[in-house]
Amino acid sequence: MNADQALVTFRGPARRNEEAMGLRSRIFAATYDRQTARVERIWLGELRAKVVASAAGDVLEIGAGTGANLAHYGEGVTSLTVTEPDAAMLKKLEPRVHESRPGAVVLRAPAEDLPFEDNSFDTVVCTLVLCGVSDQERALREIHRVLRPGGRLLFIEHVRADDEKLAHTQDRMNPVNRFVMRCECNRPTLRTIEAGAFDVADVDLITATKVPKFVRPWIAGVAKAS
């Protein structure tokens, strides 16, 4: 085998893996709204409205997905910037932002590496994002960095159960959940937020319905940058 052949052999599996990940990403983006439509209709849309409506000032939404929060921003929003790291999701998000929130800025960026100056925003909105980021603590540090002193993080997340038996079930089901929904079902997200430079000002502990048992523990609330 010569050097060129060795290089092709080495790159082949990585290239195939990238293509497979790209295909999964496109399928996930194409089917996401359909997968979540029932839950959104029955209770999640109402929860989004409750949390997101309090966003005010210069607002950043991270991991905006297909734009499920866009309809819930109120008159208190001075400016809106939305980010999404996944290219396939971004293709669905951009036209929805421009249609419903003309003037908003849309960027492709991961939560762990936000392309903004320190102290840029009054509010950060984060719904069903911290379950899927590669580094939760780093994402929260970035959120804190771009928030102004006293700025607020508005969050909705499914989390690790306090009940040990259910938490064990979450651990067992996490590989399946990661493959199907591209996120972790067993992260202690509230504790991670509290351990960072945030003061949790308000939090609701929710037992979700119309979802598998291992993703029923949810939280929704407000944390202030200390």
Provide structural commentary.
With 226 residues, the chain is an alpha/beta fold. The protein has a single domain, classed as 3-Layer(aba) Sandwich (Rossmann fold). It contains five helices and seven strands; from the N terminus they run H-E-E-H-E-E-H-E-H-H-E-E. A seven-stranded mixed β-sheet has the order 3-2-1-4-5-7-6, sandwiched between helices. Helix 1 packs parallel to helix 2. The N terminus is likely disordered.
Question: Summarize this, please?
Answer:
The protein has 226 residues and is of the alpha/beta class. The chain contains 5 helices and 7 strands. The protein is 44% helix and 23% strand.
Class by SSE composition? alpha/beta
Distance between the termini: 60 Å
Could you state the CATH homologous superfamily? Vaccinia Virus protein VP39
What's the SSE pattern? HEEHEEHEHHEE
CATH topology: Rossmann fold
User: What is the strand arrangement across the widest sheet?
Assistant: 3-2-1-4-5-7-6
Number of domains: 1
Produce the secondary structure layout.
Layout: H1 3-52, E1 57-61, E2 77-83, H2 87-100, E3 105-107, E4 121-127, H3 136-146, E5 147-158, H4 164-181, H5 189-195, E6 198-207, E7 217-225
Parallel strand pairs: 1-2, 1-4, 2-3, 4-5
Antiparallel strand pairs: 5-7, 6-7
Notable features of this structure?
226 residues, alpha/beta, Rossmann fold, 7-stranded mixed β-sheet, 5 helices, 7 strands, 23% strand, globular, disordered N terminus
